[in-house]
Amino acid sequence: MEAVQNEKGQISIHTENIFPIIKKFLYSDHEIFLRELVSNAVDASQKLKKLASFGDFNGELGDLKVSVSVDKEAKTITVSDRGIGMTADEIKKYINQIAFSGAAEFLDKYKDKAADDKAIIGHFGLGFYSAFMVADQVEIVTRSYREEGTAAARWVCDGSTEFEITPAERSERGTDVILHLAADSEEFLETERLRGILEKYGRFLPVEIEFDGKVINNTTPIWTKSPSELTEEDYKKFYQELYPFSEEPLFWIHLNVDYPFNLTGVLYFPKLKNDFQIRREKIQLYSRQVFITDEVKDVVPDFLMLLHGVIDSPDIPLNVSRSFLQADANVKKINGYITRKVADKLNDLFKADRKAFEEKFEDIGLFIKYGILSDDKFWEKAKEFCLLKSVEEVDGANRFHTFNEYREHVQANQTDKNENVVVLYATDRKQQDAYVESARRRGYDVVLLDNVIDPHFINTLESKLEKITFKRVDADTLDKLIDKGLNNESVLSEADQTKLKEVFEKVLDNKSLTVSIESMPTDELPVTITLPEFLRRMKDMSALSGERSFYGNMPNMYNVVVNANHPLSAKVLSAEEGEAQQKLAKQLYDLALLSQNMLTGADLTAFVRRTVETLA
Ligand SMILES: Nc1ncnc2c1ncn2[C@@H]1O[C@H](COP(=O)(O)OP(=O)(O)OP(=O)(O)O)[C@@H](O)[C@H]1O
């Protein structure tokens, strides 16, 4: 057996001391040193298993557990494995040269981009050297799995570019990496702190990790298994493992690709309801079962951030800057793939059990609509299964239509003179009841669009679906909402109409109200209040964006429409001019306000008193 020669050397790198730089810039989180060392230990163990499976290692594999231990007195943390180990030559190659070439590359980039700190925090194979973020001396004691040509070796480095290799006492195969913690990093000697870090990064590592007498990880999380081996319960249980005490997810997608990139994972659909502010960043990103981050912005499309679960891909570059990630070809492909899978899954659910899909629409509707808004590819699929919920009820449940079904359903009755199909909608079934019911009396259908993103959603639909416009039921009178080019005859003369208008203008005395006289069917209310679609929608949209905008600051411009054909209009005209006439007009206007829940406070009190007096 070849003995390890004592050796001192200089790590080949053209700077005195790169460690202060590593310490400062490499990772904002010092705690990831543990992730790096434990994953190296796991890699070494898995490599050995692989060698054994290829018949290149015939010894006993034994227990391959990796252990992490702390010696508070000596102020050391030790990561031990029983993996492939290293010979002295391999230490020179892998630790001094390879790992350092990463360091050198890092340094090069750092020099060029000193002005742009964030861009340099890249992935340069600096895993092992991240130990120097917390240690002022690092020791490796290792023995290779090979039968021949090996002796245990010790490598020591104090964070300068000098290292020392000496023979070591070690009879067992494997590696101990011993960190002598720097004074400013002693927090990592705390058992609970270490356990926290291990559980964060290592809870699904593929080799058992022992800490403080216990194994801390589940080595075979469900995303590593085949869907055919898994039951519904397994998926639900795993969801609880990821997010303890959460409400049950609606359903899930098992992701599994190996070409043109590697990706596995399980994405869950949570119950969203109307809650757009739901906590995002719940998807956890792993690379070969090592936790990387839960800030997956840029890795998954924005609308998918509403999902929960796990994505595991060795092809996603880690620790790289945001701008780099966005431009990365793999990340783009992954984005596209996940979007497609999610759309396909929704389509399958829709096709397989429409009723169940409709029942879940409350929860997934927000998600689907958000997807439609933000992703054209998603739209291409989602337009077949996105639903409109009608106020019409069948067997006690609201009726749902796809876009195509809906067009078929209403076009005969709701096409205007310009050949546009007009979709009438309500945002608040109760508050807009008077309008909804008027529309229904005319045989029109009304859909419910009460979601926070609906103003944006309908804008998008109008631009994507041909010849469809959306109008809220209270945006105008029905004859104008769906203008079929037919004029109702007025029972009032021009002169009477002008007079009626004057009476109402005088009673209302409000510059932001526009009074108009229209000839409507006699069974419509005598007075209606409308708020034009365009302005209202712009206001709603700016409210959602949270920005103060031109539209957001505009006052509401209500229209007061008086139905010339209603018998009460004639009654107003024939009433005695002055108090009696004004009282009647005011009463009709207040009734209109009341029907839209707009009559409040002193006005409401006065209305009630007036009404009581009239009835007395
Ligand atoms: N516990 C270990 N057992 C055996 N070899 C190891 C061990 N730790 C490190 N090595 C060797 O040292 C090399 C350098 O490790 P380092 O963590 O710096 O980079 P890496 O693991 O190759 O890449 P990454 O930057 O992704 O961690 C490894 O590739 C491996 O060959």
TrEMBL record:
Keywords per UniProt: ATP-binding, Chaperone, Nucleotide-binding
Signal peptide: none
InterPro entries: HATPase_C_sf, HATPase_dom, Heat_shock_protein_90_CS, HSP90_C, Hsp90_fam, Hsp90_N, Ribosomal_Su5_D2-typ_SF
Domain of life, source organism: Bacteria
UniProt xrefs under PROSITE patterns: HSP90
Location of the Histidine kinase/HSP90-like ATPase domain: 29-171
Pfam families in the cross-refs: HATPase_c_3 (PF13589), HSP90 (PF00183)
Family: Belongs to the heat shock protein 90 family.
PANTHER family in the cross-refs: HEAT SHOCK PROTEIN 90 FAMILY MEMBER
Protein name: Molecular chaperone HtpG
Protein's organism: Nibrella saemangeumensis
Gene name of this polypeptide: htpG
